[in-house]
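Case study 2.
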Amino acid sequence: MNLERTWQAALRLAPGVLILALIQVCTVARSAEPGSSAPAPVAPVADPCPRSFAAGDVVQNPPALFSSNGVLNVRFSYQHRIDANDPGREILCFMTPEGLQNPTLHVNPGDHLIITVTNNTPALPLTMTVNPPNCGASSMGPSSLNLHYHGTNTSPTCHSDEVIKTTINSGETFQYDVAFPADEPPGLYWYHPHVHGQVEHAVQGGANGVIVVDGIENVQPAVSGLRQRILIVRDQEIPGEPEPVGSIPAWDVTLNYVPILSPGDPGVTDFVPASLQMQPGERQFWRVSNSCADTILDLQYVFDGVPQTMQLVGIDGVPVGSQDSTQPGQLIPVRHFKLPPAARVEFIVAAPPASVQLAQFITRSVDTGPIGDNDPQRPLATIKLADVADAALVHGAGAGVGANHGRDDGRVGVFSAFNPHQRRFAGLSSAPVAARRTLYFDEKDDASGETTFFMAAEGQPEQPFDPNAPAAIVATQGTVEEWTVENRTGENHEFHIHQIHFMVESQNNFEMNGAHRAPGVTGQYLDTVEVPYWDQNPSHPFPSVKLLVDFRGPDIGNFVYHCHIAEHEDKGMMSIIEVRPPSVAGNSASAVRRIGASPAVGSLK
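Prediction:
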């Protein structure tokens, strides 16, 4: 991009828009020079992406890396191999030079996460051009890469959590420097590729891991010192792709790469869960990420078929009940928890008594709608009582792979003092609403039967996602908006927005199709929420969620909101939002369009 011509063009713009143009120029300039010198490529690792676990194996925490002195430096080689058990399936992963696969990344609020990544996958034809301003390459294709730091309240600028214009093609090296805010809630987040059109393939290939913002024990002391389990559920194709009916699911799942075999797998007649070890009488802190591309989970902990109480600690990285007060977080008892793709939940569970014959961690069946996937009930893990050391439950513990490996993450830290930082979302529930909008999921079939997916705003044309399109919504930094998100289709959808969180005000009209409101969600701060399917009855209202969307943080720029069922996202169910600083929004007449404005609040489309 010619920066001089961009500068000249900016000079002809209105004063408010000039500021935004200069922000874009600075972003592009930095994309050309990510640091004082180009980062050294990360060499490919021999025998990448190991999948060494067998059905029924004991679940171990992933390997872990920890920040030191405010920085976590990570070097990733993005690699692939072909699944030996399913030659049509490509396995993908991030490998460190020491051979760690998709490690858990531990940071503290205020830290910098610096990731240098080299795309060492084979080059494939580039199929889409991305208009300037570019961050990295200007064309993308099936082998392209970028990284999304899901749920983090971080900047959408180049070399941070930016996914619209960031492209890393085969053979290229790129460096991220993600600055976590000092008031980032302690909890569970995750990272995964986010190249449009390739998300489902990369996520089902297994290229993802979790991020833990440490310090939750100082918001919720009930977890202090507990053994913690990092539990990552991923989905993948079933070999042979059998018809997903009855007990045959649309997708197989794994738990920390331990395969959960299903009746759809060759030679398998029943589900084969993994094993989770607990000591008699102990309580554990389970931190669960639904890192599936398409599979919806409804988690339950059962003893001999009887649901047990799980003490809910956090959702989507935010300790429940902690953000609008200076008091510790709450514990909310639940008997099950609906976890859409990309969402995370953290809870405390107690080991089963010795008298229990069968203790299991399961996902209940989910009605995803008449045109949705088949998600039957299945066990994820059987609980085994055993007297085991912490290190035995952490993959690679004590492997000695560098200074930032430090220690395993088998236990939560010990409470020291209540978190001194102001809660990030304090006052959101009572903040004045600057705008109200209605958004909706929709699908349209063409004459050939192909389905196009839309993430639309009421009053605007339905358009599938285009990275070169202007923002569908323009919001102002420092404000709070109220969004109603409707589902106008015959299958479930999962609303996710990058960079920020929202508070769930209400879940509406779920009962029209027999669905139930998700327990523990209303009044909490999420980045991903499910909206169940519409029953197609014209006299029935659309199921919806009402959200308070928080733009009060400092970040401005363009980012996306979309359905996080990755197949739907890849096929167009995503749109761009632009958050402008107040000076730009106030000077630009085209920043927003008010429809039916009232003296108090306008309805923005």
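The helical segments are 3-11, 15-32, 199-204, 566-570, 582-587.
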